[in-house]
Specification:
Blueprint: E1 12-13, H1 21-35, H2 41-54, E2 63-64, E3 67-70, E4 77-87, E5 97-106, H3 113-124, H4 127-134, H5 139-148
Parallel strand pairs: 1-4, 2-5, 3-5
Antiparallel strand pairs: 4-5
Helix pairs in contact: 1-2
Length: about 150
Amino acid sequence: MKLSDLINPNLIFFDLNNNNKEALLLSLVANLCLTDTSLKNSTIGQLILDREKLCSTALDNSVAIPHARIPGISKTYACIGICNEGIDFGSIDQLKSRIFILILQPEHSGNFHLEILKSVANIFGKKNLVNEILNNGNKHEICELIKSNE
């Protein structure tokens, strides 16, 4: 499965609470939960925070991939948050994370999520693409950029 199979313009968010790491994660989860009322905001938010406490999900190149296994969901969900100011997520290159790809997978999905994580790493490992996305406020164009770079 590719990231473009999971993302559409309604799943890209710009107005996130960027006071700190926890606030940003909870804001991203809340936005995703508004798109599907079957998702339980408080449960997912806590699981994402717990996962992040285990080990930072920050990559280099201003990208982070917060993710968790979620009991009770039957499919994989994803969304993208863009925060131009950036948040310190503990990345290896010590840059603030500015693009956040949230991935929720069913609790018993095996290692299926690794395919999606690989897709995300390949796409967002391209510095010029990351900059193009950060400088683009059009959700439809961002989706096309992702799709054309998979």
